[in-house]
Amino acid sequence: NTEITQEWLQSYVDDWVKFYKKQTRDGEVASYIPELNKANPNHLGISIVGNNGVTIKSGDVDIPFTIQSISKVFCFIIACMERGVSYVLDRVDVEPTGEAFNSIMHLEMRKLKKPFNPFVNAGAITVSSMLNGKTSDEKLEPLFILLEKMLGYRPALNINVYESERDTSIRNRAIGYYLLELDYLESDMNITLETYFKQCSIEITVDDLATIGRVFANDGIDPNSGVEIIPRKIVRLAKALMLTCGMYDASGKFAAYVGIPAKSGVSGGIIAVAPPRVRDEELPFIDGCGIGVYGPSLDDKGNSIAGIKLLRHIATKWDLSVF
Ligand code: GLN
């Protein structure tokens, strides 16, 4: 019966980061965006920001990385805030595809007559086309403002990643043209794609993801100030989509084995959200938390190979599942 203190939790997390760091060898860093391939495959870091103000950080926590697909959650939220939930959901569905994130197949099947969900590239590009503004910078300004509200600083674009992605974006352009043909885009295709590449290239750290995750865990309220930053209805919808579609075509397994809303990106970042629960007496120091993970070595689905294992371990041992 170990007494659970912050020190105990810290050394527990340190031990398991060390353990799972070895497993970074089993994956590979993304190479289809050349700039991402420069990441160190051995990096693994985690930040956990608990509701009771406790922060636990371990491993490679100071390495900045681009948010990539994690931006799909934030842009979906902005689109819902700007246009209203029903406007957005009339144009993008909420069904998992079971296909890779950059799949075009579900569009061609035309079963739903719209992209399956906002967290595959086709749905995310459609969402980016809905954002207000004439230029990509105008479209993304509300996203930067939202991030700044949560983080206390304005994150910047990693220009090298942005240019690398823009210059090698054959598949995403193919998706863009196909969306254009189907008449799904709400604004100019090139501006929409530029918006999408920029949103993916915003640079943050695991601490930032954990801080944002904690706002999600509290249904959109910043627990430090008590101020509502994201409307509850929208953040809840985003969390449902993270749980069902957040980890690409490994979302089912993640829900079954980890059991918390999360979203990954090909740079190796993961944001995860453990809402506070009634029965958290075992972990009084945590009581709901946001978690940020970074591990650029990826599995065959494009998720951080060691990051998922680390999250699974911690969520299981700390009983974080929302079920
Ligand atoms: N920028 C990446 C792409 O569109 C994002 C994909 C991802 O993180 N899975 O290819």
From TrEMBL:
SUPFAM superfamilies per record: beta-lactamase/transpeptidase-like
Family from the record: Belongs to the glutaminase family.
Name of the featured protein: Glutaminase
Lineage of the organism: Bacteria, Bacillati, Bacillota, Bacilli, Bacillales
Catalytic activity: L-glutamine + H2O = L-glutamate + NH4(+)
GO annotation, biological process: glutamate biosynthetic process; L-glutamine catabolic process
Annotated substrate binding sites: S69, N121, E165, N172, Y196, Y248, V266
The encoding gene: glsA
EC number, as in UniProt: 3.5.1.2
